[in-house]
Amino acid sequence: MAIKLSLTVGHYIQIPEFDITSKAQKDAVLGYMAHEAAHIKFNSFKGINTNNFNGKPVLHSLWNIIEDLRIENAMIDSMIGTRKWMDQIWINRKADGTETTSNQ
After folding, report:
1. What is the spatial distance between Cα 27 and Cα 9, in angstroms, rounded to a whole number?
2. Residue 1 — pLDDT band, cuts 50, 70, 90?
3. Which residues contact 84 (CB under 8 A, 6 or more apart)?
4. Dihedral sign, Cα of residue 77, residue 79, residue 80, residue 82
5. 21-24 long-range contacts, Cβ below 8 Å, gap at least 24?
6. N or C, fewer C-beta in 10 Å, the chain?
């Protein structure tokens, strides 16, 4: 079964499986890695009890959106080249019609 989700649990990072056939695909893989590594680097989960989100998918989604923006901006400030990689994720998703699919 192919992995389709990107997530971080503690110091474990999972990214989707890719058949890398182009530079755009390679950059997207690096973007997923940079995004998930940013969760670890910038302490996304410190002090957060994710059990508070049980049964509250809207609250969890809002927290996730805000946290993703925070960590991606922090990663871009810290490692400027990561912006191109993270942008490539959305470019590829738009091109293949999956840009509205949640990755968390």
Report:
1. 23
2. low
3. 27
4. negative
5. 24/88, 24/91, 24/92
6. N
- Cβ neighbors of 56 (< 8 A, separation 6 or more) are none
Are 81 and 31 in contact, with CB atoms under 8 Å apart? no
**Mean pLDDT, the chain, integer:** 87
CA 43, chain centre distance (Å)? 14
DSSP state of 3: -
The pTM is what?
0.81
The span from the CA of 2 to the CA of 82, in Å, is 25
* Residues making up the chain, counted from first to last: 104
Query: In the 8-state DSSP scheme, what is residue 14?
Result: E
- Report CA 41 to chain centroid distance, whole Å: 13
